[in-house]
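Handout, page 2. Input:
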Amino acid sequence: MQILHYVGDRVSELPPEALADVLARQEGALWVDMTGPTAEDQRVLAEVFKFHPLAIEDTLKQAQRPKLEEYDGYFFMSLHAVAPPGQRGISVTLQEIDLFGASRYVVTVHPHPVPALEEARARLGKAAGSQRAYADHILYTIVDSAVDTYFPIIDRLDASLDRLEDHLFRRPTPRALEQLLHIKRALLHLRRVGTPLRDMFNVLTRHDSGLIRPQTLVYYRDVYDHLLRITDLIDTHRDLLTGAMEIYLTVISNRLNEVMKVLTVITALLGVGAVITGFFGMNFERTWPPFAWRYGVLVVLLAILASWVAALAVFRRLRWL
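Output:
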């Protein structure tokens, strides 16, 4: 548990045992960050903050859908940040953050360290004292840092999709189809958490709960604008992905048609030769050319060659070649 107390330009890190006294003094704003939560953290949530048992239960169950629930004097919010992607990876790793927001404090609960929260702490360290002394601005900074983690992975997916589209026209491979499906899965993960978060902030910016000051609402609208942009980008990339998969299937189908065309021509040429040699090899006493004629084989070969030339001329005239 990490407790940060913002009073004007001063930032203090407090021990857990001082939490109840600071809450009673009604001075400044608190940010309590819990990684776990442990059994002691759950006791603090229940006895010190007196949160609803259902909200505390939600902090223990991960992989939840983003949601916003209002209680008496505080609200509970669940959202997700995106873990930084690797050097060239496009995998989406979601990190759930559960938030309790009130007029004087913000409590964040998460099972593992979240880089977005470290970024929020750094931003608050540079913010003006007149802003960070209020809990609604601390909450805005946390949420904005989490939302900003969506943009790098979307940019990475966009670059990968562009490269795949160029590759599909040149040489479509099963590996390219696998990458397309991987991008599709990543976009589905982002849309699953991004769209509810957008709707949630739409409600939050339009609902007068008394926990967010009017002068801070403009910052929350900025977060909502970022979420609109994120969901629009996700939908756009899903359309581009659908187009890329159609390109893959079209190119593969065209290649199959070309292969079938070549095989058909080869089969036709072999069929013509088989007819001629079959006719010459029939078991008759008198044939033409006669079996004893020294030029018989040459005549048959020339007939086969002439039939092939005629067949190729017909195929070319029909634009099959």
